[in-house]
């Protein structure tokens, strides 16, 4: 089980913000829905962004975002203020996404988002003529859009590892706890994701990938 009270990677709030959130959480834990609705508005954009990157499907990400907040309301009494509420919510949401993907995989005998073999073939052939050496380099915003598209086309396991590690800042130990896999699996999937992204984004890789 993940310790739900650790602070989310890269997260930091001013003391007054932390106090305000703590008061909202305490009121919501007492059964008041209005403070929880305020917490929802404060965090929904980041949770949606996490879900979207993990599943690469806008409609599915919207549903999973709602599912995550329903789960958060159900589990709210288990939250203890030893760490940030945002960190607790972030980890809970990542688990909701992973559980949903596993459920669909069992039911359909395949992954819902992108077939891994097809994604591998597509990623390996994305070095189109426009990305060849000598072409005018794209503006930063165009490179960012291309990166998001390339992430969306990664095989699901590799995409999860890349999003959680390189985008969200989790360590492999934390990813292993969230996903219920071994650290070595997370490292292997991250290596695979970076390799596929480099192939897809050449020659601008050094500008946007670690």
Plain-language structure description:
- This protein has 10 helices and no strands.
- The protein has 210 residues and is mostly helical.
- The chain folds into 2 domains: 15-108, Rna Polymerase Sigma Factor, Chain: A (Orthogonal Bundle); 116-208, Winged helix-like DNA-binding domain superfamily/Winged helix DNA-binding domain (Arc Repressor Mutant, subunit A, Orthogonal Bundle), CATH 1.10.10.10.
- α2 crosses α4, α2 (33-55) packs across α7 (156-167) and α8 packs across α9 (183-201).
- The radius of gyration is 19 Å and the shape is elongated.
Q: Identify the CATH architecture of the largest domain.
A: Orthogonal Bundle
CATH homologous superfamily grouping of the largest domain: RNA polymerase sigma factor, region 2, helix turn helix motif
Largest beta-sheet characterization? none
Q: What is the count of helical runs?
A: 10
What is the residue-averaged pLDDT?
A: 78
H and E string:
HHHHHHHHHH
CATH class of the largest domain: Mainly Alpha
| Sequence stretches where pLDDT stays below 50 over 5 or more residues | 1-7, 109-114, 126-139
Q: Approximately how much beta-strand content do the residues carry?
A: under 5%
The count of strands amounts to 0
Give me the secondary-structure category: mainly alpha
Distance between the termini: 29 Å
The general outline is elongated
Query: How many discrete domains?
Result: 2
Briefly note the CATH topology name of the largest domain: Rna Polymerase Sigma Factor, Chain: A
Query: How much helix is in the residues?
Result: 55-70%
Radius of gyration: 19 Å
């Amino acid at each position: 089980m993940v310790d739900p009270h650790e602070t989310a990677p890269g997260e930091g709030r001013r003391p007054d913000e932390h106090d305000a959130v703590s008061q909202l959480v305490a009121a919501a834990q007492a059964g008041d829905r209005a403070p929880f609705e305020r917490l929802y508005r404060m965090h929904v954009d980041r949770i949606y962004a996490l879900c979207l990157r993990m599943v690469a499907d806008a409609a599915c990400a919207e549903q999973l975002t709602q599912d995550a907040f329903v789960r958060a309301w159900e589990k709210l009494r288990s939250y203890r203020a030893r760490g940030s509420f945002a960190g607790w919510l972030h980890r809970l949401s990542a688990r909701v996404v992973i559980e949903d993907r596993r459920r669909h995989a069992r039911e359909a005998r395949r992954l819902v988002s992108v077939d891994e073999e097809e994604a591998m073939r597509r990623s390996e052939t994305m070095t189109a003529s426009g990305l060849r050496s000598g072409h005018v380099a794209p503006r930063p915003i165009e490179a960012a859009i291309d990166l998001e598209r390339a992430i969306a086309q990664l095989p699901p396991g590799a995409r999860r590892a890349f999003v959680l590690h390189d985008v969200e800042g989790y360590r492999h130990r934390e990813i292993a706890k969230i996903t219920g896999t071994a650290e070595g699996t997370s490292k292997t999937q991250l290596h695979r994701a970076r390799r596929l992204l480099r192939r897809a984004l050449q020659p601008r890789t050094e500008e946007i990938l670690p």
